[in-house]
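Quick one:
INPUT:
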């Protein structure tokens, strides 16, 4: 039987812990001294994907997983709201590997999503890996991917889909865990978010979203932010799950065409949120920011206006485009009126 631990003074116990070997003790910190994460640094895409998070975009075949991943790419690269509703906190470069689709299809989809967002493809810093294969179970490919991330410093790395990135048994935790561990190490070393597109099991309609992912339970456990797409009859529904933030379910999506632009569009929001007309909400947001004596975060505005986060995201994006408000590192504020010119 192991000896009991000493008390705070080292007295009154039958034995003491052995003295640590010099240079081998693990670093520790008092809980109150641990670093804080400012509100403006919590999100890559507000309410949708956490800052520097790893995670899964999952769903059954033909659930528009790749379209959602590419929408993330366009929004992060451009700073426009993802799905025209979820604001991007800090835009930046995107590194994309689309293993299943021909490069011309990838270009066409990015072009359409960009047009839906009002952005020209040529203005987007989306770097596409054009190698025919990248395998995470091959040391040489892992090294090449690490070198590419180190050279480009992307805000987010998107890998689509996981099944094309290896030849291991996805049902075997011992084989899957090292590959996911490599991506976690990549994220921590280079401070980049990692989005992995992954398939759901067949016939998993009645299983919880995370448990519906194909293969080992390691996939669900690994993700900091996970997005799940499902078909409910003719409807496409998105669920959002975070490790360190509230989850959201019941977001209805549809794939819409506007001329040559084909992109996912959010058509509904969480069922427990209060609907409100967009013009009314737009004015309400203006009034709230006008009355505030400091910038307000997305969550503070949402709580005050009592609306769906996704709906508010779209209104904020519209007001930003109009120049009615400005986004600062610590939140949103009303744009200052220009000073009248002197006659």
């Amino acid at each position: 039987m192991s000896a009991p631990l000493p008390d705070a003074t080292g007295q009154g116990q039958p034995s003491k812990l052995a003295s640590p070997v010099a240079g081998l003790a693990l670093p520790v910190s008092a809980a109150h001294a641990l670093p804080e994460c400012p509100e403006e640094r919590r999100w890559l895409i507000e309410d949708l994907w956490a800052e520097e998070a790893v995670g899964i975009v999952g769903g059954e075949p033909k659930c528009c997983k790749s379209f959602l991943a590419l929408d993330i790419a366009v929004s992060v690269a451009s700073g426009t709201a993802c799905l025209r509703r979820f604001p991007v906190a800090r835009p930046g470069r995107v590194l994309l590997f689309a293993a299943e689709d021909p490069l011309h299809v990838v270009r066409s989809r990015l072009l359409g999503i960009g047009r839906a967002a009002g952005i020209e493809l040529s203005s987007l810093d989306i770097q596409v890996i054009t190698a025919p294969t990248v395998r995470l179970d091959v040391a040489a490919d892992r090294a090449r991917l690490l070198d590419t991330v180190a050279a480009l410093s992307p805000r987010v790395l998107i890998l689509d889909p996981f099944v094309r990135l290896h030849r291991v048994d996805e049902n075997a935790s011992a084989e899957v865990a090292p590959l996911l561990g490599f991506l976690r190490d990549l994220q921590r070393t280079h401070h980049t978010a990692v989005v992995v597109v992954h398939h759901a099991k067949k016939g998993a309609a009645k299983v919880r979203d995370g448990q519906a992912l194909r293969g080992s339970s390691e996939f669900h456990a690994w993700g900091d932010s996970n997005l799940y797409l499902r078909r409910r009859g003719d409807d496409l529904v998105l669920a959002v799950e975070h490790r360190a933030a509230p989850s959201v379910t019941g977001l209805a999506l549809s794939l819409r065409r506007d001329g040559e632009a084909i992109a996912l569009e959010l058509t509904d929001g969480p069922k427990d949120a209060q609907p409100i007309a967009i013009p009314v909400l737009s004015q309400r947001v203006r009034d709230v920011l006008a009355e505030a004596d400091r910038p307000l975060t997305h969550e503070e505005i949402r709580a005050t206006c009592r609306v769906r986060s996704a709906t508010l995201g779209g209104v904020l994006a519209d007001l930003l485009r109009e120049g009615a408000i400005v986004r600062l590192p610590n939140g949103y504020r009303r744009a200052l009126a220009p000073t009248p010119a002197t006659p």
